[in-house]
Design a protein that fits this description.
112 residues; mainly beta; 6 strands
């Protein structure tokens, strides 16, 4: 798979983030926007989490914030052109420490 070109990214958001930031790869992540429901958490002030190192990324900031909810929450992604898109989701579990403690579903359009 060839690397993504930052100029081809239609929408990137850092869930829970209060400010926009650019990744080391040149991707511009918007501050948390386009959501309905849920709560946000910024772990950058939590020493245990903020001093952790996530493997396989140089962009630690992406994993310091999150949006979550006990019910459902959603994001409206502003796609203006019909066509084929690639959806990339990045996750980090900062709260639960046991396997299978966090269970969720992703629904894209009418597909689950």
């Amino acid at each position: 798979m060839k690397p993504l070109n930052p100029k081809q990214v239609v929408w990137a958001v850092d869930c829970g983030a209060k400010q926009a930031r650019r990744s080391g790869g040149g991707f511009m992540y918007k501050a948390d926007t386009g959501y309905k429901g849920g709560l946000f958490i910024d772990y950058s002030d939590n020493k245990e989490i903020s001093q952790a190192t996530w493997k396989y990324t140089n962009d630690q900031f992406i994993y310091m914030t999150e949006r979550h909810g006990h019910g459902s929450f959603s994001y409206d992604i502003p796609l203006t052109n019909s066509g084929r898109y690639v959806l990339i989701l990045k996750f980090s579990e900062n709260w639960h420490h046991e396997p299978r403690s966090r269970v969720f579903n992703i629904k894209l359009g009418s597909q689950r």
